[in-house]
Amino acid sequence: MPLARSMPWSFPFAPKLFVLDMAGTTVDGTFEVHKHLIAAFQSQHFNIDQRMASLSIAVPKPIGIARILDTYFSIKDPELTEAIHVVFLHEINRYYATDASVREMEGSTLLFEYLRKNGIGVYLDTGFSRATADIIIHRLHWSKLLNGSICSDEVSNGRPDPEMIYWAMKRHGVQDASTVVKVGDTPADILQGKAAGCGAILGINSGTFTKEELIDAGADLVVQHPGDILQLIKACYG
User: Fold this and answer.
1) Which residues contact 134 (CB under 8 A, 6 or more apart)?
2) pLDDT tens string 42-55
3) Closest Cα partner for 9 from 219, 184, 196?
């Protein structure tokens, strides 16, 4: 198991709630979001690459698209931002609804099942819109495994702001953030967990960002996939 540190790691507390990202964390297909963002920009005659597209990863997509336009093209245009976003939504929703390659990250379902069995809350948070998240949850048959999910278009502030974590805590009746575990594959996820005061912040080394970048952002531990987290939580609960 590729850990962030060479010393064995274990949960320093009994978690009451897990808040996990979707794409690249619990849902496989690390660069699918990048690919569809690139295509959406191309539809409006703008060429971007994966590095540029990363500005829109883990944040609300309209904000990320506007950030790319401003940073790389010195353009501030709400109508253009919306036009690109509409194309992105159409294509990413089609992909998650129909593409045969859509699958979970290894161990996601088993982790959800184990957490629920042991009375630990399971919430997903995402930079996707509600429409996209619901397509994924339905496609992967997760509806009955989750306590809930929260999307970037349902809050005032997306990641790295802690608002989505606070929403999950409120819905699950958890008042102490030190009993919450945040899991994600981007620095924005890690910073979100730190801002919320989560007791443990775990990185997933999906390839979108390096292990070092996740550690530098403040991850307590970096693993390959949710199946590794399952082994850690089993060691805690037996």
Assistant:
1) none
2) 999 999 999 999 88
3) 219
Are 66 and 25 contacting, i.e. CB atoms less than 8 angstroms apart?
Answer: no
Long-range contacts of 106-109 (CB under 8 A, 24+ apart): 106/28, 106/224, 106/225, 106/226, 106/227, 107/225, 107/226, 107/227, 107/228, 107/229, 107/230, 108/26, 108/27, 108/140, 108/225, 108/226, 109/140, 109/141, 109/142, 109/145
CA 33 to the chain's CA centroid = 12
Q: List residues bridging with 123 in a β-sheet.
A: 19, 148
| Type and span of the H or E element at 124 | strand 121-126
Place of tokens 């992909």: 95
Residue 210 CB partners (closer than 8 Å, separation 6+)? none
Q: Which of 235, 192, 229, 237 is nearest to 112 (CA)?
A: 229
Structure tokens at 125: 């948070």
What is the Cβ-side half-sphere exposure of residue 120, based on CA atoms within 13 angstroms? 23
The model's pTM is: 0.92
Q: Listing from the earlier edge strand, what are the strands of the sheet with 200-204? A: 148-151, 121-126, 17-20, 180-184, 200-204, 221-223
pLDDT digits (tens, 9 = 90+) for 87-129: 999 999 999 999 999 999 999 999 999 999 999 999 999 999 9
Class of the domain covering 17-28+104-237: alpha beta
Q: Is 133 exposed, middle or buried (CB count within 10 Å of its CB: 0-12, 13-18, 19+)?
A: buried
Picking from 187, 119, 126, 192, the residue whose alpha carbon sits closest to that of residue 155 is 126
- Going by the DSSP 8-state scheme, the letter that residue 155 receives in this structure is S
